Structures are given as C-alpha cells and as structure tokens.
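Subject: Predicted fold for Phosphoribosylformylglycinamidine synthase subunit PurS, 130 residues

User T.R. writes:
Posting the sequence so we have a shared reference for the thread.
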Amino acid sequence: MVPTIVVEVMPKAELLDPQGKAVAGALARLGRSQITSVRVGKRFEIEVEGPADDAILAEVAALADEVLANLVIEDVISVHFAGADGFGLDADNDFETGNVTSDTSFDAAQGDVSSETEQQLEDEISEGLA
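User M.O. replies:
I've generated the structure tokens; pasting them so everyone works from the same file.
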C-alpha cells in the first residue's frame, strides 16, 4: 500500500468564514440550534513513494506551509499519515473502528430529518444560499 499523508488547512480563527456561516445558518433552519458555529476548511491527500517516516512527513509539512496553504488567511492544523487517526485509508475500516458511523440516533432528539429536507440543505449549501 502506498503511504498517504493528509494535510488539513483551516481559515484563521480571526477571519470571517462565509461558507461556515452559511452551513451554520442552514443547520439552524433545520432545527439544529445546539450547533452554534461551523468552520469549513480543506484537506489534501498526498501519496508518497518510499518509506512512511518522519522525514517525508516533515517534507510534506514544509510543502503545506510553502504551497498548499495561504498563510495570510489559513493555518495548517494537521499533517499526518492517513489512517494514523483512523481516517482516510478506507471507509470499511473507518466504519469497523467506529470512527465513522451510520448511526443517526442523534436525529431522534431533534426529530427525524426527511431526505427531502436533507436534499434541500445540500442544495442550499452548494448554491451558496444557506
């Protein structure tokens, strides 16, 4: 298996995050008032040749600072090997370890959200209306 390094970048805390604000607004309209803030970032998955060691991780971390992130408005928050935190290698493994779940019991407290409502939220977010 080819080692994969995950780089996660988020907008700086002091900056307005319009995409996160749109998602938070849409969630509030869906009755998810317990969610008070959302921030949206980006994730890069980089496959590398050779050994998965600290040297290649440091090289990719430097690359993240130099090329992948706009350091004026973003912070690199994580550079790690995929799967090191249980995420990223394959969905089946993530479900088996409990890192990802299909359990939607948290919806019961707020009432079930219909698939139509979920589709409306997805449409609003993709159109920038949320």
